[in-house]
């Protein structure tokens, strides 16, 4: 598995609301938050993603990375049955090089998360 250390970066928007980014793949894939916004019913985190080196060098078995958004208070309990994800997906880095914009959908129901601190977790996608 990867020797990359996890990083939490707060993203401040709308007063006290923020998004923590947990990215143990930061040595390979840098995710720089630009801003959090609401669009219709969605809560979106706009970012700039920089591919620094192959995700294989950070322990991933493919060019797919997984993201999960959840309430920040639930990060510790995620995977242990005491938290649930708001949104989850895979991102293909196969044809991407350098730096590019990317928008993460954090929630499809922005009314339920409007005043909540959120977290975005980045992980290797498990082997298919």
UniProtKB/TrEMBL annotation:
Please give the InterPro entries that the UniProt record associates with this protein: DUF2195
User: Mind telling me what this protein is named?
Assistant: Putative periplasmic protein
Which organism is this entry from? Salmonella heidelberg (strain SL476)
